[in-house]
Design a protein that fits this description.
With 474 residues, the protein is of the alpha+beta class. It is built from 7 helices and 25 strands. The protein has helices at 3-10, 33-51, 167-205, 275-287, 310-313, 319-323, 417-438, and strands at 27-32, 59-63, 66-79, 82-88, 92-112, 115-138, 144-162, 211-213, 218-221, 224-230, 234-239, 242-245, 269-274, 292-295, 329-334, 341-344, 347-350, 353-361, 367-376, 379-386, 389-396, 400-406, 440-441, 448-458, 461-470. α1 (3-10) runs antiparallel to α2 (33-51). It is rod-shaped.
Length: 474
């Protein structure tokens, strides 16, 4: 069967395979029985189309004074009424088909002594049983691999109906046709399964993006780090789930925490994104120098009613009026260290530390440093799934200020509380939320779409659930 025959049957299951390194994953994918059932439904439909195109060889048999020929064999109908896909621990998947039915037609020719006859026939194959074992693994790059570990096909009943007048001739080769056709069909089914798994299904699952370029500075590693863990109800897949700087990748200074999945099985697939997953994003962006943001007056929304110049700040810092009268200002925000977030039943939260360096913009456009503030505050995140991507937004509470350095003398930092809250909420947070709204890709095969999503929070990880829809090629 081709890419559409078993690729859907494997569906998102193409993720399940395995490097042998034993480590906690940063990202886990769980395929539930509902997901397997959907894969079965879609995959079997595709399988029927593929098997309906089986090419069967002509048969020619000579023994004694008898000579039989069967030609122009055509598969007219093929039904797969009962099927099942189940995970097998440390192997992969078992595809079981029972009570399948096939109908063939062809031409016959026989010579017996001086008598010759020919005509056509219909052959019905009933109670066909097929069992396929698919071994799932990974290559050296962490991409998935799939191969046929075992295949068997068994036919319990064959019935032949001949056309023509020489009835006694039919009986001479009736049993020969049934025996030959049973052997041919049993071997051809497995030959086709193995051929298409190697040539097409394998090619399709290689579309799994084990690395993704997020932007010009950051990448995301979804390489497989451990074998799948099969249970009676699901198949768990272990991915690295690590962001990294494209310019300089280095070892993350902490390990992923263990993820204890809840017994949720309402959706077809679940994605567990650990705190490690999100914190490596913070580290990667920090190392790439991306956690730097400048605020100028042009960036402040008009409805804030706020001018970013020394005349405004001189109300709180009298020295500004004397040293830099009526000059525009700018702030340069940067994170001295990468933010570190936590995930718990209440959601995602963190307390980032941000340095805010204030400058006066001199008439010659050069910058005069004024003061350096340290800003901290409680930040929470809202997370969702859209178009196969994790998206989110941030909400910040009251910001706490402290003075780290000043070239304009000392002043009461608390007096700037309202000003800095307005600056952060009107400029920095919308900027960050616009980036988070672009999202980060989930590890999905081509033509897999998600629907009916849910988001839940657990200790050390975020759980995303969804149903799966496969979009066949036109």
């Amino acid at each position: 069967m081709g890419v559409q025959s078993l690729a859907v049957a494997c569906g998102a299951l193409a993720l399940c395979l395995a490097l042998t390194t034993a480590t906690n994953p940063g990202f886990v994918v769980r395929i539930t029985q509902a997901g397997l059932d959907y894969a079965k439904q879609e995959g079997i439909a595709m399988m029927k189309k593929e098997l309906a195109q089986l090419k069967l060889p002509d048969i020619s048999v000579k023994y004694g004074n008898k000579h039989y020929e069967i030609s122009r064999l055509r598969l007219r109908d093929f039904r797969l009424p009962e099927s099942q896909i189940t995970p097998i621990s440390n192997v992969g998947l078992q595809v079981s088909i029972s009570n399948a039915f096939a109908e063939l037609s062809g031409d016959w020719w026989v010579k017996f002594l001086f008598v010759r006859g020919h005509g056509s026939f219909n052959l019905k194959v009933e109670n066909v049983y097929i069992k396929i074992i698919l071994r799932l693994g990974s290559d050296t790059t962490g991409k998935p691999t799939i191969s046929t570990s075992d295949c068997s096909a068994r036919i319990s009943k064959i019935r032949v109906h001949f056309s023509g007048r020489l009835g006694w001739l039919y009986n001479l080769f009736h049993s020969v046709i049934e025996s030959k056709m049973r052997k041919i069909l049993e071997s051809k089914v497995c030959d086709n399964v193995d051929q298409y798994v190697q040539n097409q299904v394998q090619k399709h699952i290689q579309t799994l993006p084990v690395t993704a370029r997020i932007d010009a500075k950051i990448g995301l590693d979804y390489a497989l780090v451990a074998p799948p863990r099969a249970t009676a109800q699901s198949l768990d897949l272990y991915l690295k789930g690590e962001f990294y700087s494209l310019a300089h990748r280095s070892t993350v200074p902490f390990s992923p925490p263990p993820l204890v999945f809840p017994p949720d099985h309402d959706r077809m697939v679940y994605f567990g994104a650990s705190s490690y997953f999100f914190n490596t994003a913070c580290i990667a962006y920090h190392k790439a120098g991306a956690l730097v943001f400048e605020i100028t007056e042009a960036m402040i929304p008009k409805d804030v009613g706020f001018k970013l110049d020394t005349s405004v700040f001189s109300a709180f810092i009298p020295q500004l009026e004397e040293m830099y009268p009526d000059m525009p200002m700018k702030f340069r925000l940067s994170a001295p260290t990468a933010p570190f977030l936590t995930i718990g039943p209440g959601g995602i939260s963190f307390q980032p530390v941000v340095d805010a360096q204030a400058y006066a913009i001199l008439p010659n456009s050069s910058l005069a440093p004024l003061f350096l503030l340290s800003l901290t505050g409680n930040v929470s995140a809202v997370v969702n799934v859209r178009s196969g991507r994790i998206v989110g937004s941030l909400d910040v509470g009251r910001i706490r200020l402290s003075l780290k350095d000043s070239t304009v003398g000392t002043f009461q930092v608390q007096l700037l509380q309202t000003v800095m809250n307005n600056l952060i909420s009107s400029t920095l947070i919308p900027h960050l939320n616009a980036r988070l709204d672009e999202g980060f890709p989930l590890p999905l095969l081509d033509r897999i779409q998600l629907s009916n999503t849910l988001v839940k929070f657990y200790q050390n990880f975020l759980l995303l659930g969804a149903d799966v829809h496969f979009q066949p090629q036109a």
